[in-house]
Design goal:
The complex is a heterodimer of chains A (about 80) and B (about 400). With about 80 residues, chain A is mainly alpha-helical. Chain A has one domain. Chain A has three helices and two strands; from the N terminus they run αααββ. Chain A has a two-stranded antiparallel sheet. In chain A, helix 1 crosses helix 2 and helix 2 packs antiparallel against helix 3. Chain B is of the alpha/beta class and about 400 residues long. Among the domains of chain B are: about 100 residues, OB fold (Dihydrolipoamide Acetyltransferase, E2P) (Beta Barrel); about 130 residues, Response regulator (Rossmann fold, 3-Layer(aba) Sandwich), CATH 3.40.50.2300; about 40 residues, no CATH class. Helices cover about 45% and strands about 20% of the residues of chain B. Chain B is built from twelve helices and 13 strands. Chain B has a five-stranded mixed beta barrel. The chains are: A mainly alpha (about 80), B alpha/beta (about 400). At the A-B interface, helix 2, helix 3 and strand 1 of A face helix 5, strand 7, helix 6 and helix 10 of B. Strand 1 of chain A pairs parallel with strand 7 of chain B, so a sheet runs across the interface.
């Protein structure tokens, strides 16, 4: 039950702004909840819709990911420009 | 010096040269010797043999490296390079010269370096710095990867390209450091320690290939200890497949090259993640389809139970019961009527048998008083006018007192 209510509270977050790991963790718990827990049907359907959106969001993040490289100078992180070949 | 008249030996040039050759080539020291010097007059003709002169301050030695030995040479020879050459002294008779036929060449000092390497390795090994139970597991899917290497080398480019291809989700923090020269070890130590403050999931310590001297910073005791002490797991990828440094032994994981280090750091790739997503997606769909099907079955079972328990059925049942009762009532009534009817029949017969008319027809009469209609059955009752009833009518009489 605790897990279910956790899902319900996290589901208030806007998917578009979720970082990949967080979206994946939520997706994982939604799948497990749907597979193992007895939720009311309307809750299940909402979870399903959100799960689909999370999966699509994660997939998009993977496709559009760009390696972020920073350079440690002293104690500060600066953007690192790679030499072009 | 005057030639002695009798003991002098007379030889041809060939004989003398042959004699010299025998002397030199039978001397064990000259047949297995390391010679140290600087290269000059380096020449590589098309034959594949290499010719050069080894020099130091006061002497020079002609050297030849035959084609088959030259092919196995790992060090790139250059004019002025200080080397140690191993070989045997031979004599080249046509020119009356001797030369060193070289079969092995190593940069000067390598032998001493190697001894130092072995000594330090044994010391650190005895301390347990290389023990397997010190090795920490590498995160399968790191989020932040620290890199310690030269900012300008091919090693960095190779690693970044590998990470970009395999797991572009990661954040890379480069702690640039020189990777050779005397300033390299303290700078590398500092880079590892600085990265530790930022707690990345793993640190790649890397350098591209080079001579054993180029890689020597990675055998520095300070750096090796810093690698062993690092709280963050370290993957070491220095040089080529065949190069081993002490950092390789101290690191949590040894990679043959910088590229391999980046691969080992990303055991889960973006393709694996897409596969994982696809599996979640299908589990999501099937779980939901199952839930909906389950609910549908549940609803239809409820509908059946509802129908079973509905008043309609009770109404039917009650109605049937009514019919039944009505039928039973009707049949009971019939029975009663029949009984009553039979009873009445019997009574009628008996009644009929009691009909006074029957008696009258046998000659009896019924006498009633005229005044009050009472039946006269005794003498005392007989007075006044009376009616006499016989079978076919009545007549009046008067009693005479």
């Amino acid at each position: 039950m605790a897990k279910t209510s956790k899902n319900l509270t996290t589901s208030e977050l806007a998917i578009e702004s979720l970082p990949y790991e967080q979206a994946l963790i939520e997706l994982e718990s939604i799948v497990e909840s749907l597979e193992s827990e007895q939720n009311p049907l309307d809750v299940s359907l909402k979870l399903f819709e959100r799960g689909q959106a999370l999966a699509a969001h994660c997939s998009l993040l993977l496709e559009s990911a760009h390696l972020k490289v920073q350079k440690l100078v002293g104690e500060s992180l600066l953007p690192f420009e790679e030499e072009s070949e | 010096m005057q030639p002695s008249l009798f003991s002098s030996v007379h030889l041809t040039v060939s004989q003398l040269t042959f004699h010299i050759r025998k002397q030199l080539e039978n001397d064990p020291t000259l047949q297995d010797v390391w010679v140290e010097g600087e290269i000059s007059n380096l020449s590589r003709p098309a034959s594949g043999h290499i010719y050069f002169t080894l020099k130091d301050k006061t002497a020079s030695l002609r050297c030849v490296m035959w084609k088959q030995d030259a092919a196995r040479l790992r060090t790139v020879l250059q004019e002025g390079m200080a080397i140690e050459a191993h070989g045997r002294i031979t004599v080249y008779e046509p020119q009356g010269t001797y030369q060193l036929a070289v079969n092995l060449i190593q940069p000067k000092g390598e032998g001493a370096l190697y001894q130092e390497f072995l000594r330090l390795k044994a010391t650190l090994e005895a301390e347990g710095l290389f023990d397997m139970d010190r090795k920490r597991p590498i995160a399968e899917q790191p989020r932040v990867i620290g890199i310690v290497t030269s900012q300008t080398g091919a090693a960095l480019r190779d690693m970044l390209n590998t990470l970009r291809r395999r797991l572009p989700l990661v954040q890379v923090i480069l702690a640039p450091s020189p990777v050779q020269g005397v300033e390299a070890p303290p700078a590398l130590v500092n880079a590892i320690q600085s990265l530790n403050h930022l707690s990345p999931d793993v640190i790649l310590l890397a350098r591209g290939g080079g001579s054993i001297e180029d890689l020597w910073a990675f055998n520095d005791e300070r750096l090796v200890r810093a690698v062993a002490d690092s709280a963050v797991p370290i993957i070491c990828g220095v040089g080529h497949e065949t190069d081993f440094t002490l950092c390789d032994f101290a690191a949590d994981l040894r990679a043959p090259t910088p590229t391999a280090a980046a691969e080992l750091a990303t055991q889960t790739t973006v393709d694996d993640l897409q596969d994982l997503l696809a599996s979640y997606f299908s589990r999501l769909s099937s779980a939901t389809l199952y839930l909906v099907a389950e609910q549908r079955a549940f609803v239809s079972a409820l509908r059946a139970r509802l129908k079973f328990g509905s008043p309609e059925r009770r109404i039917q049942s009650q109605s049937q019961r009514l019919d039944e009762l009505a039928r039973r009532a009707s049949s009971a009534l019939q029975h009663r009527i029949q009984l009553q009817s039979n009873h009445i029949g019997g009574i009628s017969k008996r009644l009929l048998s009691l009909n006074p008319q029957g008696i009258l027809s046998r000659g009896y009469a019924i006498i009633t008083r005229k005044e009050d209609g009472a039946v006269v059955s005794t003498l005392s009752q007989a007075h006044g006018g009376m009616k006499v009833r016989v079978s076919d009518g009545e007549f009046e009489v008067r009693s005479e007192p």
